[in-house]
TrEMBL record:
Top-rank lineage group of the source organism: Bacteria
Span list, region Disordered: 32-61
Protein name: YqkE family protein
Pfam families attached to this UniProt entry: DUF3886 (PF13025)
Length: 77
């Protein structure tokens, strides 16, 4: 192994080695909490969009419903 590669290997683990194990565990917990919070926020947004779509559908006017209908009144004349 060259001298340069040895120094690089030593530096790659240096930060983790210098940090206190307690601090590393706290940072890991914080990371997991943030990840969980982001997932919960995304789920909440998804549910809110679904609810908004339902409300929008429920509040459609007769004209909008008729325009979306696939029925052709000419067939039943």
């Amino acid at each position: 192994m060259s001298k340069r590669k040895k120094v690089k290997d030593e530096n790659s683990n240096a930060l983790r080695d210098r940090l206190d194990l307690n601090l590393v565990s706290q940072l890991t917990e914080k990371k997991e909490k943030l990840k969980k919070q982001i997932e919960e926020d995304q789920e909440r947004e998804r549910k809110q969009k679904i609810e908004e779509r339902k409300q929008k559908e429920a509040n459609k006017s007769f004209e909008e419903l008729l325009a979306e209908s696939e029925l052709d009144w000419k067939k039943y004349k």
